[in-house]
Each structure stands twice: as C-alpha cells, then as structure tokens.
Write a structure and sequence with these properties.
It contains nine helices and eight strands. By secondary structure, the protein is mainly α. The radius of gyration is 22 Å and the shape is globular.
C-alpha cells in the first residue's frame, strides 16, 4: 500500500513503533509520552523539540491514514493513548518494523548500523539478515527502501526509507549548504585547478589536496570503517542503558510495593 508521510508523521510513527518493541510496558502512549520520545536526544537524527500541538496534529493525520489508532480505554487511565497500525497496513513483521523504525528515527544508515541499533527491538543475528530485509523492502511495489550510491570515503552503502512526501532532510541540508556557500552532501567541490584533487573533510568543508595526497585518501576507508564500528558500539551502549533504566524502574516499583507505611 502506498503511503506518503510528512516529516513529523514519520517521527511520530517511528516513535510508536520503537516504543511498542523496545518498551512494551510503556505502550500504548499518551500525547505527552509521544512528545517526550520524539524530542529525546538519543537515537534521533536530527534532534528536534516537538510541542503537544505538533504531536496532536501528526497523530490526527496518521489516524486519517489508518496508520495510528486510539487505544481502548483502560481502568484508571485519564488520558487518551495511541498505538500504531503499521503491522496491519504494511504487513511488516517484528524485525521489519524494527528496521523501518530506525530508518524513520535516524535517517540513512548502513546495514551494519541498522543491525547494531535495531537489535534492541528485535533479534537480528547478522548483517546478512538485515540485507535480506532491506532487499525485500526495495522490491515491494512501491518500494519502502532504496540503497544509496556509494559516498566518497565510505566503505559501504547506506539505505533510506521512501515514506516521505519529499526528501525533507536532503532538501534542508542542501538549502543550508547553499546559504553557507558550501556544497551539498555528496558533491565534490571543484578547486579550479585541474592538477589538484578536492575532497570533503568530516565537517563537510571543502579541502584542496595536493596531487600526491594518495596516502591520505587511502586512509579514508579505514577511518570510515572505524567510525562504523564506533557507532555500532554506541548503539549497544544505548541498548544497555535502556535495559538498566527499565530494571531500575522495575526495582523501584517493587520496593514501593513492599515498603511498609511509616507510623
């Protein structure tokens, strides 16, 4: 089924899918809980601050597209809660939902990054399993995912979802680059000197390299590989932190229940 979503809808739907898998005890979610999760600084790219109004508008729009529904009322609950319907609409299984949630919440990523980050939501035994799912996503009609061309200095390709109305992230980055007078992501700047090679530094700034800078260029894939490994380790640390936080909450509830009232 074809669905095109606004950038806010993508963030909110990604949050609902993520929390349903990573913290099922806190799901379905209130508007306030969705807002906090959408605005958190971990596992989000770009980091953004959402208001209750933005969240409410996105939830309403997603309901019209049948991707979100209001959860049945529960005893003692005074706030409406919401749950996603991505499994019903798109027929994604647990592993597919985990990978799509990561792409919606953190943008374009390599298969290795997706495995490291999505494993906190669903079991992904290896990168090959992720590649298989990404391949299935790319072969649907219309496709959910596309593989991007190899970027300069990168050893592996990245993937992005195709749920957006437009590629808002790329459009915003290109607009910012134009305003600063720099090149858009992925573009190779020209130095005007045919004998001089140009490349981009990690900050995106154009740097003119000497023709004999082959050794420096050869080191770029090695640095990129180390960066991928570091990001995978960071994802594992984030997963451990979430697990510890859940244990702390659970232990806190148990202590409160067993504590005798003071006389």
């Amino acid at each position: 089924m074809s669905k095109t979503l606004h950038v806010d809808e993508i963030r909110i739907l990604g949050v609902l899918i993520e929390k349903s898998l990573a913290t099922p005890d806190s799901y379905p979610m209130t508007i306030n809980a969705v807002r906090l999760a959408a605005s958190q600084k971990q596992n989000r790219d770009p980091v953004a601050e959402y208001s209750d109004g933005q969240v409410s508008k996105a939830l309403w729009s997603l309901q019209q597209k049948q991707l979100v529904k209001q959860a049945p009322p529960t005893a003692g609950s005074r706030s409406n809660k919401f749950m996603h319907a991505a499994d019903e609409v798109f027929h994604w299984d647990k592993r597919e939902r985990a990978i799509m949630a990561e792409l919606m919440l953190r943008g374009r990523q390599t298969a290795g990054e997706l495995r490291g980050r999505a494993s906190r939501m669903a079991p992904l035994p290896d990168v090959a399993a992720v590649m298989h799912i990404l391949g299935e996503f790319a072969r649907t009609d219309p496709p959910f995912v596309e593989e991007l061309p190899r970027e300069p200095g990168r050893s592996t390709n990245r993937f992005r979802h195709l749920l957006a109305e437009t590629n808002d992230t790329d459009a915003n980055m290109s607009a910012a680059a134009s305003a600063l007078g720099t090149n858009s992501p992925g573009e190779t700047p020209s130095t005007g000197d045919p004998g001089t090679e140009a490349f981009s530094s990690p900050s995106g700034t154009a740097v003119a390299a000497h023709p004999n800078a082959a050794a420096a260029n050869a080191a770029v894939p090695v640095i990129e590989d180390l960066t991928d490994r570091l990001e995978a380790l960071e994802a594992r640390v984030e997963t451990l932190e979430e697990t510890v936080a859940k244990l702390q909450c659970s232990l806190g509830d148990t202590i409160d229940e067993e504590r005798e009232p003071m006389i």
